[in-house]
Give the backbone structure.
Amino acid sequence: MSKLVIVGTVAFDAIETPFGKTDKILGGAATFIGLAASHFNVDSSIVSIVGGDFPQEYLDSLENRNIDISGVEIVKEGKTFFWSGKYHNDMNSRDTLITELNVLADFNPVVPQEYRDAEIVMLGNLHPAVQQSVLNQMSAKPKLVILDTMNFWMDSALDDLHNVIKNVDVITINDEEARQLTGEYSLVVAANKIHEMGPKYVVIKKGEHGALLFHNENVFYAPALPLKEVFDPTGAGDTFAGGFAGYIAKTGDISFENMKNAVIYGSTLASFCVEKFGTERMESLTSQEVHKRLQQFKDLTQFDIKLT
Ligand code: AMP
């Protein structure tokens, strides 16, 4: 079993979907990643920052899942990162209404001493210079570095993003972001271009249409589980990344074959995340439910065709 370092936002989110809207609730990339990774019982540590307005009960809910939060800086006089988004009727696309960086604007991350030798590093969504700073603090080259990002950072910090992308093994990115990063419409061509930027493995997330894992000429595809109702997709991408990273940390196996399983775990956990607003569903999720859904996934994708 490997140690896992997670960097990303710990945030307030306000979400609007066709089903309703929320006031400020618990959100943030690192929050969703941490909750997903906690299903693998690995030693994980979140590196992030919040303001004095951030409720202690939110921090407690992470700590209660055995996530080390000693790397979450609390700036008493500061305000927590705030994001607000509104989903279109198809639930596959959304508009960002507000991004207030607040304390994130001057964040100097500090990786806790006992996590500087972690084998797996999950660079969740936040400023790419902060992601790079976390990598710089590792005492030895990690076994696997995974990076997730979004269009916001491509628009505002593209050079920093290119710099950190050079140093990662796996990138998880959604289809529109892959197109924006490469200027290519074909996802196969986009994945090739991203390989050239650094990552040997490229995971392209396609929302309700599943995820693709590229490694040079090899491609693996995992569908998303068809769900009766998608209530709120917020955090699904981060949950996917947390499931992927958690599974790799648990198994310690970074082969392409094992990454296929990591994609399936990521997709399974993400399928729960969208069932309720924010982190609600991930907070109540049990290992029995995960196990049952993994079986559904197997049934969905297994067929026995005889090729003559
Ligand atoms: P996802 O739906 O997986 O793209 O992630 C949504 C989460 O990302 C929300 O909980 C937000 O708090 C967080 N988020 C939104 N914008 C940013 C940003 N620019 N940088 C870091 N995290 C963000």
